[in-house]
Amino acid sequence: MKTNKLFVFAYATLLTLFLAPYLFIFSQILYTGQEMPVYDNIPLLLTNTFIYCAASALFALLIGIFMGYMLFRVHFPGRKLAKYIAVVAIAIPSHIQISAWIGFFGRSGILTPYLQTILPNFSLYNIYGCIWISAWAYAPLATICCGVMLHNIDEKIEIEATTYRSPIFVFLSVLLPLIKKNLLLLFSCLFFLIFADVKVTDVLGFQNTLTQKIYLLFNIYYQPQLALSLCIPGFVLLAFFIAAIKSLRPAMFHTTQHKFLYHLGKWKLLFVSITFVILCCYWLALPILIYITQSFEKFYTVFQAIDSEIVHSLYICTLSTTMIVVLATPLAWYIKRVPKSFFVTYTVGALLWLAFIPGPIAGIATVRIVSFLSSLPIVGDFFYFCQDTSVVLVWALTAKFLPVGIMFMYFTISQITPRWEILSAIDGHSTWQTFFRVVLPICKRQMAFCGAIIFIFCMGETIISTLVIAPGTTTLAIRILTLIHNGARADLSAASLWFLVVIFCIVAIIFAYNSQNKILTTNRKNIL
Questions:
Q1: Domain total in the chain
Q2: pTM of structure
Q3: Which residues are CB-contacts of 382 (< 8 A; sequence separation ≥ 6)?
């Protein structure tokens, strides 16, 4: 596809718009570097941050490797149902996992008195509790990613190896070496996703991490300059991460339909039992929340108290998700199809950098640039008006999750053969006609799935919402986080259940839409 100058200009303008908050805060750091106070315990913060994020990411990755292998490459009764259960478990965000595990092992948890008789010093409110909850919160994502990696490996290699070796030996000596770079990349992504998520450390009171300290200094202690000084190590870590991704060059596999599945023999019962235990841990939040809610009357009473937060959350997340999907699809298609150049390389690097910006830094950047723009002579009135509305929150969420949507659609478009686009160009269609008449009809199911993922991310984002949201308004995620801090067990469980109800309704609509489109596509092929 030829480079369209108008598209490049519009794309550069759009990317600058979403990079603007972070560039502005970075310029503030450089401009006030000599006057900025320095935090004393930065080595301790970096050490605790690395231990917490690395241990959580490694634990989640190990669970994901085992579950991905069992769900995608091993034959056992109920495998497809278990796979769907693991996929839908991605919809449970970390703050819902926090409320469930606190109900189980918290100070007034169900099992806490029994555990303290065995372990008198048992407590969930330390770094080990943070690692445990974060690992289980991101294990479903690791499961799907590892399963897709294993699913897309050419099965001929495995069939030849299993002629003389056991399935477990083949997995350890053949499959894992093939995807080792992909696993290292996945570990890095999990590391920075956990690094950017402040909810677990905030609720459990573990304040000695970098992002948690930034959030506290800006939002609680009102020391923005000190918070800005702590943003520098975060930027450096992200720069190292992007350089590592560029040097790793993970293996790319084409999607295949596997007919070859392993039969584990005498180990089958043990591994299947472990698989279903892990699936139960994925969904542990649901029965615990139902148990603590106590009654349907409490469930309905809480709904009457939070109905405005539910409506406002749906409004904000729907606007943000629509903007992200509408923008991400053409941008991802353009990045994939345009000839490689410095502009494309810069764009990919900027998107990767944006995708893993921690929530506190994103919130600080948005607040600072809106305050700066509201003081300008020409556009100041407009931004001053938007400062107390939901427009700023939509902008912040779009800037935070647009790179995620672009990367998702990029990998989706990578699976599409460019043959149809070439034929469309031969017929005389322009670039935009090819996109609207060829690419969009092919990608509409993937766009719906991308919208569901982005909607879940937007619904679960609490730190940006807390820092940016207009006075006098709130969202469902902020209400749940407030209830967690206040220790209202029944109200917290009922509000968390309503959060899951909203998420599962969206997921059900997307699944129904995709299933209907799949049926129509199949019928159309049969007719042809």
A1: 1
A2: 0.81
A3: none
pLDDT tens-digit map of 449-504: 888 888 888 888 887 887 787 777 788 888 887 887 776 577 878 888 888 888 88
How buried is 184 (Cβ within 10 angstroms: 0-12 exposed, 13-18 middle, 19+ buried)?
Answer: middle
DSSP string, 347-374: HHHHHHHHHT--HHHHHHHHHHHHHHHT
Contact between 359 and 197 under an 8 Å Cβ cutoff? The reply is yes
What single-letter amino acid sits at 93? P
CA atoms of 368 and 371, how far apart (whole Å): 5
Q: Does 37 map to a domain?
A: no
Residue 314, CA distances (Å) to 130, 353, 478 in order: 29, 28, 13
**Cα torsion 218, 190, 45, 402: sign:** negative
pLDDT, tens only, 18-34: 666 666 666 666 555 44
Please tell me the predicted confidence (pLDDT) of residue 339: 62
- Domain with residue 305: its CATH number is 1.10.3720.10
Residue 150 · residue 68 · CB < 8 Å = yes
**Can you give the C-alpha Rg of the chain in angstroms?**
24
42 found inside a domain? no
The alpha carbon of residue 418 and the mean position of all alpha carbons in its chain are separated, in whole angstroms, by 29
376 DSSP 8-state letter: S
What local confidence, expressed as pLDDT, does residue 245 receive?
A: 62
